[in-house]
Each structure stands twice: as structure tokens, then as C-alpha cells.
Amino acid sequence: MKIEIIHNLTDTFEGHAQQTESGVEFWLARDLQHLLGYAEWRNFNTVISKAKTACEVSNYSISDHFVDVNKMVDIGSGTQREIDDIMLSRYACYLIAQNGDSQKQEIAFAQTYFAIQTRRAELIEQRLLEAERLSARKKLTATEKELSSLIYEKTGNDQDFGIIRSKGDQALFGKNTQAMKAQWKVPDGRPLADFAPTIILKAKDFATEITIFNVKANDLTRESAISSEHVTNNEAVRKTLLDRGIRPESLPAVEDIKKVERRLMTEEKKAIKNPESLE
């Protein structure tokens, strides 16, 4: 019986998903009522009221998740009558399950089901954020490689890039690269950027892109001129971050990007072998 309820809940709940013209999924309360084991609409409506209160307490707009509608139903002999119904978002369905009678098997399993769905969504979100950070790190690597080649082309010195990048770090963080490495506990021989949050990776990349553009546009050929340009750009990016309440040197280090990359690659291989592992 339990397995049957689980399958019924999963198949029926997902099967009742509708699509509005804007592509937003929703469920009808009258359908969910029976799925969750409520014979009487008035009893189920009481649960919906509690769910609405929970929605409001959580600082979400009730009207975004519970939308009153009317629909026609057959009452026999080819006639129909209009009844009240409610369009529910996935979050609304979750709140209804949480506020239902947990003595009902359907509600108990629905609560577990939605807990799993919520956790699944969190894992997907985390995976997307990690993929975004990895992408930002690779982009910064490519941009810095382009700047390094450009500096060598302009100055003929392959040591100038390291000097210029360090000056950029000083301008962005308000402290030098070694100080930031010590603060973030970056292992010897590893780049600072491998432990930087996404916002910093993108900030460094943007400043570097501007430097590349202006070195080319203004034909800068001396290390001092390119350094000045790079410092100015990093100072400008720092000012923007500070204006938005983000202090680069106060941000904590994040997980080693190499570990993130290995984890994403492992998950990708698992997904190829077993697509259901992502569900």
C-alpha cells in the first residue's frame, strides 16, 4: 500500500502539472484534494487557509501562489455547474502538505515527497552555482592569458605580467596578493583566484578585459603605462563593488575550484551512465 501511495503521489502530482500561457506550472486544488486523501472540500479548504497563512508569514505574496478560479464540472444528465477552485504553485502544494493532517498516509508521504523535491531543487541550484563559478574561473584564465601575451608583445618582458597582475590585486583588494593568500589560506603554489568567489572572479575578469582593450586602443608599450591602466581599472571595479556594499577583501575564501571541477566531472559521468541520478 505504501509503495502504491508513493507511486500514485509522484505520478499523479506530476501528471496534473498544467502550463499557463506564460509557461508557469500550476496544480488545481480540487485535484490535489483527492490526491491527499480529503473527501470533503470544506476540510481541505481549511488546510489551504493554513497554507496561505504560512505563505504570508514567509513573506511571499499569497496571490503569487494561490489564485482563485472557477471551473465547470459535470453533474449528470449532460448538465454542468460552476464550482470554485484554486490554481496552486509548487510552493503552495508544499505548504498545503506541510499543514495537512499527518495522520493521513497521503499527507505523511506528501510531506516526505516535497522535502525530497525541495532538497533536489537545492542540489540543482548548488550545482548551477558551482558550474557558474567554474565557468568564471576558466574565463578569467583565458583573459589573463590574453593579457599576458599582449604584455609580452608590447614590452618584450615575460616577467611584466606577474608584476602588473599583482598591482591589480592590490588595487582591487586594498592589500597585496600575498596578504590575500595568507588571509584565504591558499596553499603554496596555487593561484589566489582558485579560492575566490564568483563575484571576485568576474570582477577581476572585467578589469582585465578593460586593460586589454585600452592597451590595444592606446598602444601602450611600457610596463609602467600598462600597470597604471590595470590599477585604474581595478580601482574602478573596486569602487563599484564598495558602492554596492561588497568589500572584496572581506569576502571569505570558497572551496578549491579544482575540487569543484572534479566533483562536477564525476557527477556528469554518473549522469551519462544513469540519467535518473539527476532526478
What report would you give on this structure?
This protein has helices at residues 2-15, 29-35, 41-57, 62-65, 90-98, 105-155, 160-173, 177-184, 198-218, 223-243, 257-273, and strands at residues 18-19, 25-28, 66-76, 79-88. The protein folds into two domains: 2-101, no CATH class; 129-278, no CATH class. With 279 residues, it is an alpha+beta fold. The radius of gyration is 28 Å and the shape is elongated. The chain has a four-stranded antiparallel beta sheet with strand order 1-2-4-3. Helix 6 (105-155) packs parallel to helix 9 and helix 7 packs parallel to helix 10. Strand 3 (66-76) and strand 4 form a beta hairpin.
Question: What is the gist of this entry?
Answer:
It contains eleven helices and four strands, in the order H-E-E-H-H-H-E-E-H-H-H-H-H-H-H. The chain has helices spanning 2-15, 29-35, 41-57, 62-65, 90-98, 105-155, 160-173, 177-184, 198-218, 223-243, 257-273; strands at residues 18-19, 25-28, 66-76, 79-88. Strands 1-2-4-3 form a four-stranded antiparallel sheet.
Element layout with pairings:
Elements: H1 2-15, E1 18-19, E2 25-28, H2 29-35, H3 41-57, H4 62-65, E3 66-76, E4 79-88, H5 90-98, H6 105-155, H7 160-173, H8 177-184, H9 198-218, H10 223-243, H11 257-273
Antiparallel strand pairs: 1-2, 2-4, 3-4
Helix pairs in contact: 1-6, 3-5, 5-6, 6-9, 6-11, 7-10, 9-10
